[in-house]
## 1
Amino acid sequence: MGLLIAAALGVGSVLGAPLVLTGVGFTAAGIAAGSLAATMMSSSAIASGGGVVAGSLVALAQSAGAAGLAITTKAGIAATGAALSLLV
C-alpha cells in the first residue's frame, strides 16, 4: 500500500508542478504582472544589481514555466514526491 501511495504522489507531483508554476506567475507568455513571480523577479534583480542571474531560482522557474519541464526534471520531481511519501 505504501508503494502505491508513493507512486501516486510521485505522479501527482509531476502533474502538479506546471500548475503551481503557472499559479505563482511563471507562464508560457512570461512572468505575470503583480504575481509572486514578479515580486521574486524584482527582488532578484535588485539583489544582483539589475538583472536576473542565470541559473537562479527565478531563471529556472521562468524557463520551466515558458518551455515546460525537462524529462530529467520530471523524474527528479517524481522521485522526490515518492520519497517524501515514504517518510511519512
## 2
Amino acid sequence: MIKPRLGSFEQMRRRAWRRLPRGLFDYIDGGVGREAALRALRARLDAVTIEPRVLRSNGNREIGCSLLGSEYRFPLVIAPTAMAGLVQHDGEIILARAAGRLGIPFCLSTQSITSVGALRAAVPEVDIWMQIYLWEDRSLSQGLLERARAAGVKVLILTVDTPYGARKPWNDRSGFGMPFRLSARSLTDLAMRPGWLARSMLPTLLKGGLPGLENYPEGLRPRLLGQPPDPRVMLRRDLGWEDVAWVRKSWDGPILLKGVLSVADAKRAMQEGLEGLIVSSHGARNFDAAPAPIDCLPGIALAVGKQMTILADSGLQSGLDLLRFRARGAEAGMTGRLPLWALASGGEAAVTTALENLRQDYIEALDFAGIS
C-alpha cells in the first residue's frame, strides 16, 4: 500500500526504477541520441514564467473544460503510452479507471496490451480516445478504425511523427521490445525483479498466455516472445498527407494530429479539415534536435486561432507545467510518463492519487498566479 499522498514526479520515478526491470524502465524513461531534446523539455518548461496578479482570491474556482464537444473536470488527458500493461497487469484498464474517477479522458495506444474492445468492456463509462499509427497495409488499419468505432471511441489521435522506431542503444542492450530478445543480460534483469514478475507477468500468463499487442489484427499480433512483426503491420514508412486525408474520410468523429511542431504543418492540418492538434515531440523519444513543444505553442496557437483544438504534451510533470502549457496556447495538456511511474509505484491507488495531486497542484498554480 502507498501512503495517502504520493511524492513528486522524481520520487515516483525513483520508486519505479526500483520496481521495474531495467529494460522496461529505460524504455519508458529514455529519450533518443544524446538526449539533448529530453533535457530541453524540463529546462524550457522551467524557463516559462507567469507574471502573477494579486488580490484575485477565488474560493469557488471552477477548472472544468470543454474539449471536442465533451465536458471534463479539468484540462488533462492521459496520453497514449505503449505497453502500459507490462508495467502492471491490466495497466491500461487501471489507467482508464483512474481517468474516469478524475473525470478526464484516457487515450489508448495502438501498441497496448489491452485491446480497445476489451478496454471498453472493462470500463464502460470512461471516455476513451484512441491513438493510431497507420500500418503498411492500410486495409488492416481500416479494421482497427472499425474496432475503435464499435468500442465507442469518441476522438481519434493520429500520430504522424514516427516513420519508424528510433534506435535507442539501451533498448538494444536490454533486448526490450516486441518480441523480447532473450540473453543472459535480459534474463538476469527479469530475475532481479521477482515482484514485477508476480504483479505483472504471472497474472497475464495465467489469464491468457504471453502478452502481446492486442489491437493488432488477429494472427499478426506481436508477442513478448516470438517472431518479429509481420511487414504488413510495420509502421507506414511513406506516411504522407494523402494518408491523413484517407483517415479523414474513414473516421467521422474528431481527429487530432499528434506530433506537430511547425506552423506550416499546423496550417496544413487545418486545411485537411482536422479538428485539432497535439503539439508534441513524442516525449523527446524520436528526434534529438526537436524543439521543446512549449516553445512551439505560441506560434501554432496564433496560426490556427480558435479554428482548431490545441493540446500539448512532452515533459508535463505537474499542475504548474499544465498551467504553463495553457498559458502558451494549449487548451489542455497530456501526460504519459507520470501515470506510468505512479502505476509502477503503487498500482491503481497510486495513479488516482498522482492525478488528484496534479489537479490540486494546478488549482494552486492558478491561485498564486491570480488567474480567474
## 3
Amino acid sequence: MYIAMNRFKVTKGSEADFETVWKTRDSQLDQVPGFVEFRLLKGPEAEDHTLYASHTLWKDYDAFVAWTKSEHFRKAHANAGNNKPLYQGHPQFEGFETVQKL
C-alpha cells in the first residue's frame, strides 16, 4: 500500500469554503486503477489557520504515479489554482510506503 497526503494550512474563517470545495469536486478517483480510499482530514487549529490533510490510499506506489500522469489527474486538478486564497502557501506533499499493517 502507498499513502499520499497533502497538508493544507487553511486560513481561519475559510474552513467551510475549503471543505465545500473538496466535497463538491469531481475527483475522478473512483475511475482510477489501484485507488483504494480517500479521506479529507481536519486537524488542529493554530492562531491563523486550521490544518487539513487530503489522504489517499493506493494499491502501490506505481498506481499512485500512474494516476499523477493520467487525464483523470488533470481533470481533478484543473481548477485547483482557484482555491489558493483559502489556504496559506503551497500544500505540503508527503508520500508513504506501508511497512507494517496489522
## 4
Amino acid sequence: MSMRTSTDSVGDAVQDRQRARTARGVGGRAAPSAARPTPPRRRRPAVALLGVLLIVGGAALAGLLALRMDSRDPVLVVATDVPAGTEITRDMLRETNVATESDLIVPSGALSSVLGTYSRVPLVEGQLLDTTMLVRTNPLSGGQRAEVGVPLVEGRVPDDLDSGDLVRVVRIGEGETPSQPLALALVIRPPVSSGGGGVLGGGNDAKGSAATLLVPLEVADAIVDAAGNNRIGMSLVDRGVAVTDSDRLRSLASAR
C-alpha cells in the first residue's frame, strides 16, 4: 500500500514538472508558427510566350528596315534649275539612290527616254525627276506660239517674276495714245541680268533684267515692237502655270 502511494506521488511530481516546463516553453511540442512559408510562384506561359514573340518581332522588323535601306534604287534627279518649256539634256540630270515605290520616278536606266523631252513646269535643283513634269511636244510646235525676249523695267513689272508665271502684257500709252493690252503670256525663262538700264539694247552701264515669254504668235511682233521702244508693262495673273496650259495664252491685241 505504501509502495503504491509512493509511485503515485512520483508520477504526480513528474506530471507537475512537465506542466511547468510546458508553461515555460521548454520541451514538449512546439507551437505552430503563425506565418507559413510562401509557395513558389508559378510561371505564366502566356506572358513568357508574348515576351518571346516581341523579341522575335523586333528582330524581324530591324532586319526588314536594314533590307529596305539596302534596296535603294538609282534614279534621276535634276542637277540644276530648269525653266518651263526647256528641252531636257544630259547635263541637266544626275543620279542618286533612293528607296521609292512610285512608278512616276524615272530610274537612271531610262535616261535615254527623257532626253529630248521638255519641262512641263519649272524644275528645281535636287528634285527627283517625275514623268508628270515632262512633255514630248515642243511648246513652239504647231506654229501657234512664239518665244519673245522682253526687258523688265522696275516699276513696270511685278517683283520676283519666275518661270511658270502667267502675265498680262500691255503696251504702255504715250501722249494721246492709250495703253493697249497685247496678250496673256507665260514666263518660261526667268529674269536674267542684262546690260542696258533695264531696256534691251540700251546705251548706259546700268544693270537691268530680261525674261523670255511664250506668247500667241499673232501678237509676237507687237510685243517685240513695244519691248524695243521701252513701252512694255506687265501684271501678274497666276503662278505655277504649265506650258501645256496653252488655252490660257491668248491675244488681247483687239481689246481697247
